[in-house]
UniProtKB/TrEMBL annotation:
PANTHER family: RUBRERYTHRIN (PTHR43339:SF1), RUBRERYTHRIN-RELATED (PTHR43339). Pfam families: Rubrerythrin (PF02915). Gene3D superfamilies: 1.20.1260.10. Residues 1-127 form the Ferritin-like diiron domain. It comes from Methanosarcina baikalica. This is Ferritin family protein. Coiled coil: none annotated. SUPFAM superfamilies: Ferritin-like (SSF47240).
Amino acid sequence: MSLEQILKNTFKGETTEVGWYLAMSKIAEQEGLADIAVYLRQIAMDEAWHATEVAEILGLVKETTLENLEMMIEGEGKAEVEKAEAAELARKEGNTRAALFFERASLDEARHKAGLNGFLRRLKKQQ
């Protein structure tokens, strides 16, 4: 396996672990285990920082914040549409929990896109 493939697999693994640790933290919190929940969230952040470094090594992020905002605005827009479509599919299949998740996540993506656009406009005015 090439180094590039190992790095790509590492990025995928690290980002997946972020989701797992946050999900486990949520369960620990629901069980009243606040200390464990906090520790699991800290591990999630450590894994996120690992992913950050790998993303930089792989060149997945741009050189400037302006370029990164533009890239992510496009990504958030696509994610918004994809999640809305997934919500429709989940409703058709009778999976209410998945439908509600995708509807909420689609709205989150729209909010993210709007916030990023606000920062992008501000940066462009400052140039």
